[in-house]
Structure formats: C-alpha cells, structure tokens
Amino acid sequence: MVASSKRTAAEAGFSHSHCGIGQTLHNITATQASNTTYVDGTESNSMNAEGSATVTSQDWAVAESKSSRKKRRKIERESDGDPSISFFKTRPERVDLKALQDLVLYILADGVAPTWLAVKNARQIKKVVVLMVPALDQKMLEDSELWNSISEESEMNSMSKPDESFTHPDSTAQAQHPASADASAIISPPEADSDLPPQPKLRDSLLRHIIEVRAPGDSRINRVHSPLQGMLIAPFSESTKQREKHGKDEKSFQAVRTPVVNFVHAVSELREAEYPIHPAAFADPKDAQLEKERREKTGQSKSSGWVDTDVSIFKPRILPSSSPPKSHDFLTQGLKAYALDCEMVLTSDEKYSLARISVLDWAGRTVLDRYVKPALAIKNYFTEFSGITQEILENVTTTLGDIQRELLNIVGQDTILLGHSLESDLNALKLTHPFVIDTSIIYPHPRGLPLRSSLKFLANRYLKREIQKGGMSGHDSVEDARAVLDLVKLKCDKGPTWGTLDANGESIFRRIGGTLKMSANGEVVLKTTAIVEYGTPERGLGRDATYKIGCANDDEIVRGVLRAAHGDSVENSTVAEHGKEDGAEEKRTSHSGEGETQDHDQTIPLGGTEFIWARLRDLEAARGWNTLPSDSFLAPASSSSSSRPLPSDQTDHLRSVMRQTLQRIYQIYANLPRRTLLAIYSGTGDMRPLLRLQNLQAQYRREFKVKKWDELSVKWTDVEEQEMKKECERARRGVGVLAIR
C-alpha cells in the first residue's frame, strides 16, 4: 500500500464547482452564503459527494503520495522563505571569477547550480547586482578603524521612512520600489512581516561572506586576462550551441549594417589595450588630469615631442561642408575614416622609431605614403618585418615632425583612425587621437585581452586574403592598411557580432536578457539588464545591456545602481535618470546610428532591472593601480629586485578614499530592494609589479636579437622568470563579497 496523507480540497487545487450537482442546487438557494470567502481563501459552504448535506471543505480530503507531499512542502517553504548562502566544506581555497559568473547565471538565467556553495531559496532572489571595485582587498574590508569612522547615518536612513518628495500615485508600489534621485534619499523597502526574527546588523550581513577570487589568466605564460571580460563575457547557452551546430558563421549569420562610428572604442577599452589617450576622450576632468600625469611620467607628453590632434569633445562630429547630409554614405555618415599602418626600426635609444607611414581613405585611395628618417642612429632595420633597408632611407629627409604636421592637417574632429594594434603606430608617431578603431579589438581573440589575433590571421580568416608574403623583403604598410580598411568595412556591413562567433562566449547582458520571466500583471516578458559605468558604456562591453547609465564619478555610480535596482517613478524619472550636474548632457549622448534608441533617454520601469553591473574607480586611482609602469621600471638595477616602489597605503588621502569607497558599498547594499544578491569583486591584485617584469622581458627580447650578451641592458635569467611567475599569481589574487539584502 502506498503511504499517503490527507489534505483539503482547497489545498489540492479543487474548486467547489467540482463537487457534484448538490453544490449547484445549494448555490441556487444560498447564493450569498456560498459566495462568502474567508481570509484563508476557503469557502464557508460545500457539499458532500452526494450533494445532500452542507459541510466544510475540511470534511473531505484527497489522497496524496509521499513524494508529492514533499515536493509541495518544499515549494511552500521556498515561496515564503528568505534566500540565503552557505558554503560547502569542499569549497576551494580560491574561487575563480568564472564561478561568480556561473552563480549569477544560475540565479538569473539557465546556468547550472554551483558546486562550491548552496543557495537556499534561490528562486526568491529577484535581482543580482555585480559591483567591481578595483584595488579592494580583504585587509581593507576587515579594517574596523575604517568602518568605525563611517557615519552611522546610512544605517539610520536605511531604516527610516521614505522621503515624501519621492511619491507615486500607487503608494503601495512606491513603498516597495522607492525612486532614486539621490542615494541618501533612497531607503530599503520595509520588512514584509513584523514577526520575522530580527535581522543582523547590515554591516555584519554585508561582510559575512568574504572570499578570495582568482582572476582569469594563464600562469604558464604569466598572463592575466581581463576581469571585465571574465565577468561580462559568458559561455554560450545550450540553445546557442545548438543553433551554431546547424549553421556556422556565414551560413547562419544575420547581417545588420552598422555605422562605423558605433565601433569607436571607449576609454576603458583604450586603457585596457595600453593606448596613449587623448585628453578629449575623458568626460571627467579628474581622469584627464590623471592621464596627463601618467603621460608625463612615461615620456608621452608634449615635452617629449608628442602631439594631440585638434579635438575638444569626445564625440566625432561632422564638420560643415557643401555636401548635403542625404549624400553621405550610411556607414560613414559624413565622417572621415583613415586606415593607418607604420613600419618601425630600432634606434640607439633602444626604442622603435618611425620609418614609414601609409594612410588610406575610406575609398581605398592612398592619402599618404612616406619614408621617414629617424633622428637617432639606427641599430636594427628589422628588414624581414619592416621591409626597410639602409639604402631606402639613405637619401630620405622627411622627419617625424613633418609627418606629425601632415597628420594634424588631415585628422580632426570628424576623423576616425583605423589600424591593427594601433597603439604601436601611435607610439611611433608620438600622436594621440580620441576616435580610433582597432581590428585586434573588434575581432577579439577567443581568450580575450591581452591576447590578440594577428592581422595576417584575420585577413585570411575573414577576407580570404593572404598578406605579408614578402618573406625576407618584409611587410608592405599599404597592403596592411588596406587589410585593416577592408576588415572594418566588413564589420560595418555585417554588424557588431560579426567576427566574434569564434570567441568562447557571448555578452552576459544578452544571455540574461534572453531569459523569460513572469511580470507583475501575469505576462511573460524578457528580463532586463543595466550597466552603470564611467563615460559611454554603450561603446564597450555594455552595448547589449537594456539600459546604459553613463556616469562621471563614483557618487553617480551609486545613484545609477540604485536607480537601476528600483526603477524610475513618474515624477522623478527625469531627475533620477540623468542624476548629473547641469551641462553634462553631452557626455551622456551615445554614438547612435540611424534608428538606434538613445538609451539615456529611456525610463527604467518601476521595479528596476534584474541584473546590474557597475564599477567604482576612485580607490583604483588613489592607489595608482590604473597607472602603467613608467620607463623607470625598465631600469637595469630593478631587473632582479623584488622591491615594489608602490605608494604608501597609509596616506591621509588614501585613507579618506578607502573610507569613502566602503561608505559607497554600504550605501548601495543598505538601499537595495529585499532579496537582491550583491556580488562584489576586485578583479585582480596589484598588476604593476607583473607589468614591470613583463616590460623588462620585452626589452630583453628586443635587445637579444641585435646585441651580444655583454651589451644587454637587461639580462633575463631564471631568477627573473621565477619572480614573474610569483607576481603573476599575486596579481591574479583578488577579493570578493557575497551578500543577500
């Protein structure tokens, strides 16, 4: 006999209309009584099987199997219980960043359950906020002196009543989803039940689960991969893999013609690719000043012979001309695009100097093709790569200054420069320009930066063209520039996702945004996502997010996160959405093409989005982690030294920034809607010691090709190799926090 239990008809899901004709007769004579409903949802009258007597619904029951009863009780517990996190005893000492991404996909999309922690009542987690805080470490998180110095006002505000200046016609909905014009005015939604056990202090709840997070990378070759891509590029879902099985690349690809301006790189992409950055590229003057100081230290300033193109704002703009807009090509939209390639030689200062430059316009016509005489003596012509010989440069009188002046005459506010690993060419030209498109970035390497596919590979893969076949006679810069131009044109014709299908993932915003959910009114809709980032997030990895919120400082990041979490109210949508000072409108404008939605003008529905990614930057800047090593790191005396010339962590300014960063983290957590998971990660440790050693190794390899061992300024031995391996492991060690509000 199967074990069973009894439950009422109401619990079984039967309505009383299914109880026989006796119920119908009773309804005729006692309509009012039969329609009376108690608070518990059961009706006051029901009939027995024969319909001859009136009994309560609890007087009869339906048989229920043991497994069904267990399943029902589990669902009932999950529908009422708060979500929580607990770690398994078998969890690893360090959690890979990919494991955090898997946790997000498990909660919000179709990911599998993690094997290193248990999420109780995971279905009750309605939102996930991922906050990247570079330069954050465990010592700072556990610094009681810092926490004690933070004002307790935030904790008091999180328990206070809503600010009456933020009201909504539906007061109940507003209480659950307060609007957000100012982070200090946003409050945590009230507890659903007053008889719940008292919650621990918010700070303790926030810091309960601190974990060590390992950044993506390859320790065998001493490489640390991008922590941005590590979180924001997710593995393909099973449905995507199935689609790719039935048709790959050209056969199944749906082309979407896209203006070339949409591929101009954001500052974050340029910084990650180690570009010298033009002052106009920064929306925040503080960032521009930091970059200016970095360029001074690394010899990339005007005093070292560098020039910046005549551009004053960060968005390409068509200059007045006689041609009407209707005559403009859809892909260029009246802008000028020049493909550029340079050939270099090694000079006596152990640096690469310009020896040839080739520039092609959008139509493929050669605009500039000149040989250049370096100012210093040439030590190596690298003929097998550059195609440059002593005979070619013997009678050349053109100087780098001449080329700079020519470029400044043709490159301006309406110009986009195209190239492959273009930062090398710009370094040789000693020139910066804010609008660049790099084919090594728009056709990403499957494993992400810092790895890049070669131009020869991309030309063969996507253009079906063999280039750089000169052998000992070297490369042809005109041929390389033409390959770059054709790759960019192909990208514009096919769309943003062309050339990325060979990569090992898709945007996490697209993955989550393709997941269905049940809306409040019972409709099946897609989940929504948001990115809250400095500058113009729609240019970079956030282009697939439903909402892109551009910010100028960390305080705006806090407001943007809370706005995305709660949504915009009717009255405050304008203030909450823009959340910026007067005159900052232009820095929020996206480079949209024809028919593209201006995301900054959209209102986020009340209730907010399901997934939010954001990044705080002040701490990184204060610690100097966003500054690449200067040339002093290449000094021979430092090659075997393990000392780290890092700024002191005990300065008053740094302590102030650390305190402000913790305050902002706490502010976000305290004001999130209930049942929201906050996942914080630092990305990496301090990368500067590793970058110093990588620069030393690169210089050694350059010199080793042309010098005798005794003449090397840098000698790379097993001591340096082992030191670099240690620094790579240190750089990959970050910190993370998991907390459910």
Automatic annotation (TrEMBL):
Broad class of the protein's primary localization: nucleus
Name of the protein in question: Exonuclease domain-containing protein
Cellular component aspect of the GO annotation: nucleus
Signal peptide annotation: none
SMART domains reported for this sequence: EXOIII
Bias type Basic and acidic residues, positions: 284-299, 577-602
Source species, domain of life: Eukaryota
Low complexity bias spans: 178-191
Keyword Hydrolase: yes
CDD domains per record: REX1_like (cd06145)
Keywords associated with the record: Exonuclease, Hydrolase, Nuclease, Nucleus
Domain Exonuclease: 336-497
Region annotation (Disordered) ranges: 39-87, 152-201, 281-306, 568-604
PANTHER family found in the cross-reference section: FI18136P1-RELATED, RNA EXONUCLEASE REXO1 / RECO3 FAMILY MEMBER-RELATED
MF-aspect GO terms: exonuclease activity; nucleic acid binding
Family affiliation: Belongs to the REXO1/REXO3 family.
UniProt organism field: Cladophialophora psammophila CBS 110553
Residue spans of biased composition, Polar residues class: 39-59, 168-177
Pfam families given in the database record: RNase_T (PF00929)
Stored InterPro entries: REX1-like_exo, REXO1/3/4-like, Ribonucl_H, RNaseH-like_sf, RNaseH_sf
Subcellular location: Nucleus
